[in-house]
C-alpha cells in the first residue's frame, strides 16, 4: 500500500492537551501546529503526514477524521498534496547528492531553470515537489492523482462548511473518487 504526503489546513492550531488523543489515533504519524494560549486560536493551524492508503483520497479522509475526532472544534478547511521540500528532501527524492541539487539550484551545473523556491522559513527555502519533478523530468504517479483528488476534496470541504446538510459523507466522496480518478488522472 503506498504512502501519500499531504498537508491539511485547520480552522485553528491544536492545544497541547489535544495532542495525546491525536497521537493515540495516529501513532505520532501526523505533525500539527500547536498553541498554548487561547489568544492564538484565531489563526489557521496545519497538520502534515505521510499516510498509507489504497488511494490518496482514502488516506486524506482517514487523517481528516482522526484530526477532527481528536480535537473538538477543529475542522479541516483545505488539503494540499503537492508537498514543499527542503534541499535534503529533493536530493532523496531525485536520487542525487546534496551538492548536485545545490548546483542545480544556483545554476552552476546542469540544465538552467531550476524552479524558484515557494517560501523561506527560518532561513530554509522550500520548493514545490511538482515543479522539481518536472525540472528533473520525473513522472510521479502520486502527483497525477493529487490534482483531481485535492480539487474534489477541497470542494467537498467547502460544501461541508457552507451547507453541511447537503454535503455527502466522506466515504461517499472517497468511493466516487476511486471510480473516476483512474480515468481523469
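Q: What amino acid sequence fits the structure above?
A:
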Amino acid at each position: 500500500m503506498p504512502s501519500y504526503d499531504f498537508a491539511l489546513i485547520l480552522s485553528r492550531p491544536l492545544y497541547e492537551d489535544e495532542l495525546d488523543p491525536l497521537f493515540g489515533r495516529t501513532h505520532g504519524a501526523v505533525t500539527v501546529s500547536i498553541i498554548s494560549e487561547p489568544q492564538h486560536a484565531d489563526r489557521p493551524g496545519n497538520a502534515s503526514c505521510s499516510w498509507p492508503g489504497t488511494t490518496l483520497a482514502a488516506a486524506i479522509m482517514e487523517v481528516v477524521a482522526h484530526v477532527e475526532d481528536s480535537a473538538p472544534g477543529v475542522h479541516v478547511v483545505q488539503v494540499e498534496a503537492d508537498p514543499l521540500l527542503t534541499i535534503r528532501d529533493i536530493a532523496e527524492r531525485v536520487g542525487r547528492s546534496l551538492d548536485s541539487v545545490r548546483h542545480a539550484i544556483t545554476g552552476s551545473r546542469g540544465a538552467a531553470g531550476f524552479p524558484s523556491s515557494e517560501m523561506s522559513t527560518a532561513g530554509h527555502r522550500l520548493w514545490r515537489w511538482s515543479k522539481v519533478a518536472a525540472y528533473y523530468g520525473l513522472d510521479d504517479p502520486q502527483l497525477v492523482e493529487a490534482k483531481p483528488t485535492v480539487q474534489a476534496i477541497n470542494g467537498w470541504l467547502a460544501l461541508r462548511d457552507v451547507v453541511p446538510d447537503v454535503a455527502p459523507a466522506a466515504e461517499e466522496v472517497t468511493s466516487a473518487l476511486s471510480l473516476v480518478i483512474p480515468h481523469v488522472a
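Q: And what stands out in the fold?
A: The chain has a mean pLDDT of 91.
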